[in-house]
Amino acid sequence: MTDAGNAFAFDNSYARELDGFYAPWKAAPVAHPEMLLFNHALAQELGLDGQLLDGPDGAAVFSGQLMPEGAQPLAQAYAGHQFGGFSPQLGDGRALLIGELVDQQGHRRDLQLKGSGPTPFSRGGDGKAPLGPVLREYLMGEAMHALGIPTTRALAAVATNESVRRDGMLPGAVLTRVASSHVRVGTFQFFAARGETDKVQQLADYVIARHYSELADSGPAHGAGDDRYLQLLVSIGQRQAELVARWMAVGFIHGVMNTDNMAVSGETIDYGPCAFMDGYDPRTVFSSIDHQGRYAYANQPVIAQWNLARLAETLLPLIDTDEKRAVELATEQLNRFVDHYQGCWLAVMRNKLGLSVQTDSGSESQNVDDGKLVSDWFQLLESEAVDFTAAFRALAQVAVGDRSVLNTLFQDRQGLDAWCDRWVERSAAELADVSPDGSSDGGLQMEAMNAVNPVYIPRNHLVEAALDVAVSGSDLESFNELLGVLSDPFTERDGLEAYAAPAPANAPPCVTFCGT
Ligand code: AMP
Ligand code: MG
Questions:
Q1: How far apart are the C-alpha atoms of 70 and 10, rounded to whole Å?
Q2: Average pLDDT, the chain
Q3: Element (H, E) at 431
Q4: Burial of 215 (C-beta count, 10 Å sphere; 0-12/13-18/19+)
Q5: Residue of 25, 74, 81, 94 to mutate, ligand 1, most atoms within 8 A of C-beta
Q6: For a pLDDT cut of 70, what percent of the chain falls above it?
Q7: 482 vs 503: CA distance, rounded Å
Q8: Higher pLDDT, residue 368 or 170
Q9: So what's the pLDDT on residue 360?
Q10: Where are the domains of the chain?
């Protein structure tokens, strides 16, 4: 019979292959761990027995009290640029990788505890996590997953029933995070900063095997003509471009895009001070400490490229033994990131406007026109701080000739009408292109738009309210309700109007906090 102690078929490649990249470690003792949230759908994906684990036994495992057979708990070493300044040693200061599972689809996934106590990388921190941020990360990850955006996810949230000292005393919790890996740009930086090129190479080979196996055969290994490390930089850049474009498409602001918070797998990681934009403003920042707007909405693609440049620096000795040549090659690829990102951005924005078909077969002029159509739309939204999410849903109704909802979102109708006419014309051209009889079908366009433009996102005022009741009132009901709504963000349901509505005008401005 299985029990929680042998319910995991761990296969720990990081522990096995990367000796010297981590510190084996143990979780801090917790007397009364209690399961608060368990993600049954994710457990199933991972081949885990949800019935067995959603209870006291799971609470013991997912607070680090019971290490199941095959687990090799360890704290990973990494460095990172934080708000532009380099810290040579960060590392898992409050997290433990307990092991890796190969899921039902054959994908390797990390299981990591976050908030499980201090480690050799804690730098004076307590290694703990308060309940509020744990629930926040749980909710945000699940919401992003439901939106179809690559992300780490939460498997469990366990209350420690102990207090954590922050400004005051807060209830503590441990999050179990599932990621396709926890290798960050900062992991490369850790070894590069110490001049350990052999370790950088070992890590690059590991990342290629785990995430970019198509590169494993690009030329003779480690010999002349082997450009796999340059290609690794390109591939990581491509996934990052796609990821950030998809953030932009839903108004997501990560908030702390430090190089230690950029996973080389291309998943969104580390939901700290992140939030979704309400009224459209490209300068939006939520983080309490980001005074310069370094990680503002519109800056995210620029920062992604900046982070890639930091990654490129670590790979230079592997790209070419001639440093000047290596810099040239890397720079050329970094410059290409801009075009690649623009392509990804235009593709997702076209979809949002119901323009999935390229009428022009990719001709330059149509790309320019569509780019202009999109940026003019955003300018309209910006001029009146129109709700980002509601605007796209309302626009879909214009496809079937109903401008009434969209009109309610704007004061100045003139600019809006002119833009809508252009969009209707552009849509008709596209539809004429796909239906040979020249008929246009606005209904299909509306459906296509509603399939990519969410009606429900984690709105700041709703998230804050749900967390407040959960933490102060120890009541998870409204949190679970919100979680349920967000699990199906594209299907409008009766009775859920409050979840779709923009924040009330008197809602306090959202401020999110780092270092939680
Ligand atoms: P984050 O802001 O969560 O991305 O964390 C940045 C760095 O600070 C990482 O090295 C974390 O492990 C570390 N850190 C954050 N909070 C704590 C904490 N309470 N105790 C120890 N280390 C922490
Ligand atoms: Mg982090």
A1: 5
A2: 94
A3: helix 413-434
A4: buried
A5: 94
A6: 93
A7: 15
A8: 170
A9: 54
A10: 3-182, 186-351, 353-516
